Amino acid sequence: xxxxxxxxxxxxxxxxxxxxxxxxxxxxxxxxxxxxxxxxxxxxxxxxxxxxxxxxxxxxxxxxxxxxxxxxxxxxxxxxxxxxxxxxxxxxxxxxxxxxxxxxxxxxxxxxxxxxxxxxxxxxxxxxxxxxxxxxxxxxxxxxxxxxxxxxxxxxxxxxxxxxxxxxxxxxxxxxxxxxxxxxxxxxxxxxxxxxxxxxxxxxxxxxxxxxxxxxxxxxxxxxxxxxxxxxxxxxxxxxxxxxxxxxxxxxxxxxxxxxxxxxxxxxxxxxxxxxxxxxxxxxxxxxxxxxxxxxxxxxxxxxxxxxxxxxxxxxxxxxxxx
Length: 323
Fold this sequence. Notes:
By secondary structure, the protein is an alpha+beta fold. The protein has 7 helices and 16 strands. A hairpin with a 3-residue loop joins β6 and β7. The radius of gyration is 21 Å and the shape is globular.
């Protein structure tokens, strides 16, 4: 790697990189993660998407390919001051040891601080519960190795130590963490079981949303296995096993097949909104019901979370009307 120049001021740091021959053909986000030691690939991806990276003087996408001699300009914004104050928010801890804890997250709880959610997040609650959490490359996300959407309920594992963080990240990366979700979909799902294998990336226009995108346009591999559990008039209850962990993966995949998650106003439009009204839902019917992985000491841990009251009531209403 050749570094043409690195400048730092109160506005952040600007680095200019010249791509060496051995990196020719690499994805831009992968190259940056290798070339800049303090960047993870996810952090590099966010910087590219936020417009902090130029490839040969032009805006680029994470999936853009670099060539030998390409000039990459990286603007590293100054770190935002993060003052995480522990908050005593009630949590349902279903497992805890010296390395990890698993929480049964309620719907409506944001996982980590973000614009509009400076306080009252799961991270604040965890800091009020645990003496320490593992550091990550984002100081606003201590202990966080995966996420659930704000309005998705269910099981989440959190790292308390660096040993546990590295262990869990490796398990997620090699797809050895087994996650099972329950989702109520609008429509008649066919066939009874199947796999949705379609890359997901940031929507090219609506940047807060995700979409099915070709990998050449920034999509990243995404795969969801599903099986039908129960059928109702106009609805299907399925179990879903995401083999990858893309943002909004289950919601995007099922919506792309014409089966939006009931109550998902972002990806399901009017059909999902009408379903929410009919079933008395104030959020999407998506619950992380089962989580299985290996602990750092080698033991296998398998945990289950029952459907929350609001989702159970919606199912009961459907079963009553289907009789």
